[in-house]
Amino acid sequence: MRTVGELLREWRHRRRLSQLDLAIAADVSARHVSLVETGRSNPSADMVLRLADQLDVPLRERNVLLLAAGFAPRYAERPLDGDALPAAWDAIARVLRAHEPYPALVIDRRWNILMTNRAIDPFLADVAPDLLRPPVNMVRLGLDPRGLAHRIVNLAEVRSLLRTRIGRQLATAPDPELTALYEELLAPGSEDASPAIGSEIAVPMIFRFGGRELRLFSTTTTFGTPTDITLDEIAIESYYPSDAESAAYFTTSGAGADPRPRTSGR
């Protein structure tokens, strides 16, 4: 088992900080950081968490650090349902309902879809059934020809955008399953001549749907100060029309008529 010092040093290198940078941020001496990393000082649980906070270590990995230092985990991981996290469930449901008639969904750290609003349903009407068996993965759903890929006009741009986002995510918090998904669907290859993207905000997703082209852009919402691993790892992806014609489609087609959010795979 790796020591807490080795793990902290790895996270510091990943954040491209010197020992002095981390020491200043955590209000400790650089010598103390050095002693912890080399195993010559055994940090308290509070010190582990103080350093982890400055290194922006995800809650799941903070538990790993605590265990490596000989302490019990501090952060629970509970299912996102009405019994375990009722306040969070209600807040997310309200966000999804409020966003209708435009599409919105909730994803976990591996881009599995946990919940959607009703405006998503028309987009899934002709998706291959096996792609909709839980857990439904948003990346696979979007890039598979049997999923949404045949509807996405600017598929190369969307793939490039996903490559950028997930590549950045993996650089921040490595995950074996997400890495495998990236290598399978997003790693650059001879078949992929995706254009460079200058600004993520400016790139729409263009869907060919209902006899017209719908232009959408997305925003991502996360919990600001989560103390539960589940909440720390989820995000709400909300889609907005980029032009008046796309907006008109959603406001006149009845999309999202039933505002109740529903689970869509874990």
TrEMBL record:
It comes from the Bacteria. InterPro entries: Cro/C1-type_HTH, Lambda_DNA-bd_dom_sf, MLTR_LBD. GO terms for molecular function: DNA binding. PROSITE patterns: HTH_CROC1. Residues 8-62 form the HTH cro/C1-type domain. PANTHER family: BLL4672 PROTEIN-RELATED, BLL5781 PROTEIN. This is Helix-turn-helix transcriptional regulator. It comes from Microbispora cellulosiformans.
